[in-house]
Amino acid sequence: MKIGVFDSGVGGLSVVKAIQKELPDLEIVYKDDAEHVPYGTRSVEEIHGFVKPIFQSFLDEGCRVIVIACNTVTTNLASQLRAEFSVPIVGMEPMVKPAAAASKTGVIAVCATPRTLASDRYKWLKDEYAKSVKVLEPDCSDWAYMVETNSVDREKIAKIVNEARNAGADQIVLGCTHYHWIEQLIKDLAKDRAQVIQPEGPVIEQLKRILASP
Ligand code: DGL
What we know:
Blueprint: E1 2-6, H1 11-22, E2 27-31, H2 44-60, E3 65-68, H3 71-84, E4 89-90, H4 96-102, E5 107-112, H5 114-117, H6 120-129, E6 134-136, H7 143-148, H8 154-166, E7 171-175, H9 183-190, E8 195-197, H10 200-212
Parallel strand pairs: 1-2, 1-3, 3-4, 5-6, 5-7, 7-8
Helix pairs in contact: 2-3, 4-6, 8-9
The structure holds D-glutamic acid.
């Protein structure tokens, strides 16, 4: 079985790595958009224009499922893309619900791109699941660029993680797949005061369910 995995850049490769570990027999076609990454500060219309032909090329190449390994595209465009393309589309979005449910301090931090934080879907997730907690949204607007260009400024990341910890956050949500590459750094900074979560596990479970269905 052949599936397509998409992200604007290198973020989705961390998801490919995780999928390959769990489903080694799957043939994965990975596509990014090196010309336009990062997406996180672009408009929804612009991003839609970029991804539509790429998604069509997945179908043309025989992919039976598409994984959007990008929170920015999922939170802004998943519904539209599902209506436009006939294959099952699995998305990745910030784990607001589990973070809010697990928080003991009543404070969670969501690290995501500006476009994800501005999306209706993200606002809905907060309204639906995080009404009873305080949601911090630290400025991570240059993190995807730093990861993409291999120029991660550890001091900058440390400052943001420490601020979130000091503000009481005991759950740090990685709401952008680029940040999966610096997950260990963030975990080390969060130490035992905050749990760091991202959705690779549930996404792979969802993918398995789709692959198992007739
Ligand atoms: N990796 C993507 C995400 O999960 C997008 C990062 C970007 O292109 O700004 O949101």
